[in-house]
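Worked example

This section walks through a single chain of length 122. The input is the sequence exactly as stored; nothing has been trimmed or padded.
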Amino acid sequence: MFGIEFGNLAFNCEVSEQTLCIVVAGKNETSSIDEFIQKALDYQIKNDFSCDVEEYKNCVFVDATDDVVKWLHEIIEGMNRKVSFEIGEPIKTLTGTITDFDNAWVIETKEMFYYIFWCTTA
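Given that input, the structure is written out below as tokens.
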């Protein structure tokens, strides 16, 4: 399991107050998507990612709608051209929302799990 945090300078808007935190694990590292979510949250807290994820410990994740998946792709596309990553073909995409300023997605692919946490202070 590893994590990457993209701060405001990773986005095309210089005054952006966005942060995107991504935790990735191979499917052989966890027994289920629910276990991965808990491990990803623990990883973010342990490694002091700048977004406050503690309240997500009680968040209920549900299947993401097409609009929510589209919004995630828009956030990623809004990043600087020098920042890119390929997730692969999703098997399942879940989402959890606590506030309008904090959102999370969990993506399961054939071989990997991705926990993507977006927050802003705007």
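What to look for: DSSP finds two helices and six strands in the chain.
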